[in-house]
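Hi everyone, sorry if this is the wrong subforum. Our group has a chain we'd like a structural model of before ordering constructs, and none of us has done structure prediction before. Sequence below.
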Amino acid sequence: MSTAAPDGYKASPVGIIPADWSISKLKEATDLITCGLASTPRYVTSGGVPFLSAQNVKNGTLRLEKYKCISYSDHAKLYANNPPKRGDILYTRVGSIGEAAIIETDLEFSIYVSLTLIKTGARLHNEFLKQLLNSAHYKRLANNEVYVGGGVGNLNVNVVRGWHVAVPPLPEQKKIARILSSVDSKLALIDQQITTTQTLKKGLMQKLFTQGVGTQDADGRWQPHTDFQKTELGRIPVVWEVATIGSISENFDNLRVPIKSEDRQNRQGEYPYYGAQGIIDFVDDYIFEGDYLLVAEDGENVKSRKYDIALYVSGKFWVNNHAHILQSTESSDLRFLQYMINFISIKDYVTGQAQPKLNKAALMGIKIKLPPISEQKEISSTLYTVDRKLDHLQTQKAQTQQLKKGLMQKLLTGQIRVQPDPQDH
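Answer:
Right subforum, don't worry. Here is the predicted structure as tokens:
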């Protein structure tokens, strides 16, 4: 049974929408919807015209950092009419399917079949349509309509042409688009701040784990190291030493207890259940309490190091047999160990290709540069401050993404109406 539309609204193929909004198939509301070149072109190594693909569209933005080029003559054959231009929309139909971005460059280029080119025309504002296509509703449509041919999923252009869209009056489209794009700008700023802070942390780690912070004078101020020594791990301050992880930590792997997935379903609770890469569930009991360091024992990430393999954990929790568990001794700081393990290369200690593994003996035998305990704590405190900033930025990003999701749901369906500004007319 369909829900009756309230006063001022009407039922439509896309749900309840305002009565003064129209409904149209996308092909009828736009000037052109077409895909790029279906065959692999002849690439040129110098000169030529950029040849863009779905890989150039990411998070609603056209990225031009990397692309191949084709000859001007091939480009001219492809686009004797209706070439991609500033203001048009590129929509992914292969790979990361269902992402839309506006062309915001005057650069002349061609596109591969993995992209759909949309020219909006007079009825649809390009930023409004971009936001609409990037909404949860059209993301679902795109993924539900994927056709797998030759082992590769793709979104047929004719399917996209046939989608129904709700079309508000053009001034309202512009106001909606401006509200949503302002949130996108905030998200882009947060992403930039995250990247900058991550770069800062990387530089700090490089400096702190080779030069340290120094020694404290009589007034407690840190003075840079002046005397260094050569070691098997490279040049380090003379007050540092080379130590194995096994000589400065205690290992509690023998206390780990794995719980099968089906058994965990009957043991849901408040205590984190950790695996190789962090929390994978919550259970009704714990086997550890206190401050510990978890180090991934196996999995692809042990080799690729796309993510940190050492995680500082505090409180009550459970650990399975895919993460080593350590505590520091009097000669080591637990957070320092976390940062050091995440910084150094461990490729010489990892075994297995298909199933990379860092076994207990290998972990405990890893050699690291070890400053005096007071300097370890100063180093870990410095890096922990940067991590707190990153956590704050990630929280900001998640909250802003949630705000954007709620706004899109209400604005793009007309649940909330907006009053256009004079510039929107």
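For your construct planning: The longest strand covers residues 310-319. The chain has a mean pLDDT of 94.
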